[in-house]
Design goal:
137 residues, 3-stranded antiparallel sheet, 60s Ribosomal Protein L30, Chain: A
């Protein structure tokens, strides 16, 4: 496993930066290890809903998890507002860094992630290949 430490600066879009880094660094199978920082706006999609929710203000990024690969990322985030109320969901473009976002990302060179349409769920789900074996490891 390889570890990558990255700091995003004010104004950067959290999701778009992760998508860009995945392509630039040619990560075949990457995942979020740790993330802390602040946002001034978060765009999230809540479970079972199609529309996005926009949250604005001084927000702390209290959790970020997910997988990254060349044909897609799947990221979930939780943010806390000034009163400590936490809101979480599927991370969408439009999440803007307020002061910093400190990210630690792991990549597994021995694996390959892809997002493939799953007939059962109707969504593009994670498919993992390790060497010549395909499946869940």
């Amino acid at each position: 496993m390889d570890i990558h430490a990255i700091r995003l600066k004010p104004g950067e879009d959290l999701r778009l930066a992760l998508e860009r880094l995945t392509m630039e660094r040619a990560w075949k199978a990457a995942f979020i290890v740790s993330a802390v920082g602040s946002l001034d706006r978060a765009c999230l999609r809540f479970a079972g809903r199609d529309e996005e929710a926009l949250i604005e203000g001084e927000l702390e990024l209290v959790a970020l998890s997910g997988t990254l690969c060349a044909n897609g990322v799947h990221l979930h985030a939780a943010v806390a507002d000034r009163t400590g109320v936490v809101t979480g969901g599927h991370l969408l473009p439009g999440c803007r860094v307020r002061t910093t976002a400190e990210l630690v990302i792991g990549s597994a060179p021995e694996l390959s992630f892809r997002r493939e349409l799953d007939a059962q769920t109707g969504h593009h789900e994670l498919a993992v290949t390790a060497g010549s074996r395909k499946g869940v490891f």
